[in-house]
Design goal:
alpha/beta; Rossmann fold; globular; GT4 family glycosyltransferase PelF; transferase; PelF-like; DUF3492
Length: 474
Amino acid sequence: MRICLLTEGSYPYVVGGVSSWVQMLMEGLPEYEFFIYSIGAEAKDRGNYKYRFPENCKGIQEVFLDEILRLPSSGMRTHALTAEERETLRALVQGEAPLELPGLARVLRRREWKSPLDLFMTSDFFDVIARVYRERYSYLPFTDYFWTLRSMLLPLFFLLSQPLPEADVYHSVATGYCGVLGGMAALLYRKPFMITEHGIYSREREAEIIKSDWAKGDFKSIWIRYFYHLAQLAYASADHVYTLFEHNARIEAELGCDPQKIGIVPNGIHMERFAGISELTEHAGPIVIGAVVRVVPIKDIVTLLRAFFLVHRALPETELYVMGNMEEDPEYVALCKRTVETLGIEGVTFTGSIDVAAYLPRMDVLVLSSISEGQPLSVLEGFAAHRPYVTTDVGCCRELIYGDSTDTLGTAGAVVAPMDYEAMAREILRLARDYKLRKEMAAVGYERCRRGYTYEHFIASYRRIYEEEGQVRR
């Protein structure tokens, strides 16, 4: 059986997170063939892989959104769309009425389109845009509205017009563009389609848009509605939707996913990789605080540094290690280093990419400062290494620290609000000053990981799921 994994902005160009999950999945199921359909931002990344494909990965198809800039157009056309096609596009532009993928397929995959720009250059589509503008957005400048829609919809039109690989099962790792593409491929080839949603894609895009400078004023709400609409389309197209934890499942249902489709499969780690790491011991010298993270904005290293500034001021015998890739966003790395210099923080080390298992024995307390997560593998790895964690209240972190609705083990650390560096500092200090508490929390985390978050459980779950998906007929 061949499984097409659809990725977006992750595998195989970015290390960690979803990319690690994809690699582990393929390596753990050698009896299946995999094919990667990857959506990237810039064509300069073509072939610049951060992972070595396992033998059962039989190929990759790369599509980059900046290729849109080179699209040709054959000029204005009139009366190119049927009334039904115009209504389909109106539903897409308006962003409220439920969309149906077959209708989009009929519009966007017509053979006469030489380029996605051809559809944009029809008078019919211009009339659709103008109609929605008059009904909903007449208080905005029309030119700005038109170009916003063009920027918003062209990537979707471009991707849905691309050739799609044949497979026995389509499996998307998000509900965004790759989710819609997976649904389209399943529709064309009449094969099953499933989604594993790590974080809630539409909410992550909403958070990014709210903070962005490129979307202004009411145009932010147009963009946000669009990504929620894409997520609903992906949910509707999927046969099954898997997520990593209970809270995400509830959110997916609130966003319109049929609860009967939703299943929970936690991430899992190789606990044996950390078997040589001893439990915490009481020791002389500094308390070492660690963060296993990529140095990128979504991990909010600046908040971590502000928290450590307070920790170090209250407890000078402390050190901070920031352990992870520093190549992805050089500007943010520079900002973090300027923050260290500006605040005059001592005892901070940026290690770059490292062997996590080699560094964790030095740590007394681990911290995750992210503003968005799914189910972070770094927390599970810390648990496997007998270390307690202070995390932000994002993704699955609350369930990892306190347990889900079936878990009575206890507390494996502390959870604080995102960006609340004062609360983060208080919790780090609480653990740093109390060896017995650190050791008790570490024991809870280890047992929680052993019971429900092993690699073996993760792989067995997806082996069963793929067997079941292979029996689905459309």
